[in-house]
What we know:
By secondary structure, the chain is an all-alpha fold. It has helices spanning about 1-10, 20-60.
Amino acid sequence: MVRFLKDSVRELKHVVWPTKQETTKYFFIVVTVLVLFWIYLFIASTAFSEALLYFKNMVS
């Protein structure tokens, strides 16, 4: 277990961590993609629901 922790610490020293500017840029990219995906799902869900209601009313 101790060897595993030492190896983990050694590997973490090789990691290139993103800068504050990169983190901010990637954060806004992720949030933008999530919002666009949410809008797409909202529109698709609403259209599907309306279509189902339309066909239900046609059958009734």
